[in-house]
């Protein structure tokens, strides 16, 4: 089932928090299991002194924490998100259509705040406002909502008739917001949400690493029956009824996505690079697929889960369970030698929120 999200306009909901000013905010897709779009690219101009070059930084995704009924995490650019978690019993019984709320705060002195609401049901009443402990909060006042949540016990998402569409527990929300204040360097500052003080903002906005990608070109290699048999043996693959995919990478090289094993909702595929008669395991700059979750990848070569290669982007969608409300989403781009992690989002708690928290971002450039 697709996950439909009501993404509030950033230009309206991004708001100042005691001394901050609005700024624009790109947000992750709220559609469950949708194919990830190609990353935004910046064409580096050699003649320009300020041209962006590959920073060759090893990916270090941020960690996630859980405070009560809220998960929270920040990426390497210090964009932080807290995500509502639903009661496990409610998910199991399937009572009602799950509705989740994520609050994201941008880094730096501006520190714009935004809200995202998502539901599995396209027919769910559209939210028209919020209430914290029965006190209404404007739908477009994201900063005010976050501040109210820090002192409340229950968050209601209300429809146009003023009645609650759903009510979420605020247990742990204050701690999660305080964690964001600390990670972004706002503790004791006027721009903090919870840990307020009289000091001016010390928040910083780290520069994102840059990856120089190679755009796909050429014709994908065609595998012979003998090559397929060799790859299956090297990858210890036993999946039947699946056909290996090949995709041109450029420079005469092709990517092979070789299905290895399958379960109810995860297909593990081993990855190889074909260069003429030579076939080698694909190389990565970060753990991929189940390796990124800490689980056994099931194959001695690098692999992705429910993988796809489109518009020059290799994606992996490792699901913690069939509902798709936990796991790791990844996007990789090819730099001519290996696949580089350009984005990673995660949800470690399997509690109904499939709007994953971004833990790593990179700028993708074309030299």
Helix and strand layout, with pairings?
Blueprint: E1 4-7, H1 10-13, E2 41-43, E3 64-67, E4 70-74, E5 80-84, H2 88-93, E6 99-105, E7 113-119, E8 129-132, E9 135-137, H3 142-149, E10 154-158, E11 164-169, H4 173-183, E12 210-212, H5 225-235, E13 245-250, E14 253-262, E15 267-275, E16 278-281, H6 290-293, E17 303-305, E18 308-310, E19 313-319, E20 327-334, E21 339-347, E22 357-361, E23 363-366
Parallel strand pairs: 2-23, 12-23
Antiparallel strand pairs: 1-7, 3-4, 4-5, 5-6, 6-7, 8-9, 8-10, 10-11, 13-14, 14-15, 15-16, 15-17, 18-19, 19-20, 20-21, 21-22
What does this structure look like?
The protein has 367 residues and is mainly β. The protein folds into two domains: 4-45 and 56-183, no CATH class; 211-366, no CATH class. 12% of the residues lie in helices and 34% in strands. It contains six helices and 23 strands. The chain has helices spanning 10-13, 88-93, 142-149, 173-183, 225-235, 290-293, and strands at residues 4-7, 41-43, 64-67, 70-74, 80-84, 99-105, 113-119, 129-132, 135-137, 154-158, 164-169, 210-212, 245-250, 253-262, 267-275, 278-281, 303-305, 308-310, 313-319, 327-334, 339-347, 357-361, 363-366. The strands form five sheets. It has a six-stranded antiparallel beta sheet, with helices on one face. Strand 10 and strand 11 form a beta hairpin.
